[in-house]
Amino acid sequence: MTACVFCQIIAGELPGHTVLETDDLVAFLDTRPVFRGHVLLVPREHVETLPDLPAGLRDAFLAAAQRLASAVKDGLGAQGSFVAINNTVSQSVPHLHLHVVPRTKGDGLRGFFWPRTKYADGEAASYAERLRDALADQTGA
């Protein structure tokens, strides 16, 4: 599905700051992050919503989400994370994606109002590298 922006990022047709890749999954920085280091986890296969995710990918998808939640703490110094999936409603791209948003007490995020920010030039690459390093430390790679 070439019209899908996430499929284009996965295929390398559009740039993306990738932080995790497996045979079945890819995680990259959101281009309009709630907070810097906001990661999107997607299956390589075009799947629109969580109910569409093949059973064989469920464990790997959740395991990757756990690793990313740890990475935003270890790699970015966040105190925790907000993890969310929208299904159809509020889903800006119709390709399953799980948000992992770094959180710090007093960061101003309230409820489901998500103010968006932008990365300065070169800043996204630095955040992606820090997350990749934290993920590598988890596996000892």
Number of strands: 5
Count of helical segments?
A: 3
User: Which strand order spans the largest sheet, edge to edge or round the barrel?
Assistant: 1-2-3-5-4
The backbone outline, from C-alpha atoms, is: globular
Strand content: 15-25%
Most strands sheet: 5 strands, antiparallel
**Which series of helices and strands comes N to C?**
HEEEHEEH
Radius of gyration over alpha carbons?
14 Å
Instruction: Give the uncertain stretches in residue-range form.
Output: none
Mean pLDDT: 92
Q: What structural class should be given to the helix and strand makeup?
A: alpha+beta
Could you give the distance between the termini? 33 Å
Helicity level: 25-40%
Task: Characterize the structure shown.
The longest helix is centred in the middle third of the chain and has 22 residues, at 55-76. The protein is α+β, with helices and mostly antiparallel strands. A five-stranded antiparallel beta sheet has the order 1-2-3-5-4. It is 32% helix and 18% strand. The N and C termini lie far apart (33 Å). Helix 2 (55-76) crosses helix 3 (123-139). The chain has three helices and five strands; from the N terminus they run αβββαββα.
Secondary structure topology:
Blueprint: H1 5-10, E1 18-21, E2 25-29, E3 39-43, H2 55-76, E4 80-85, E5 98-103, H3 123-139
Helix pairs in contact: 2-3
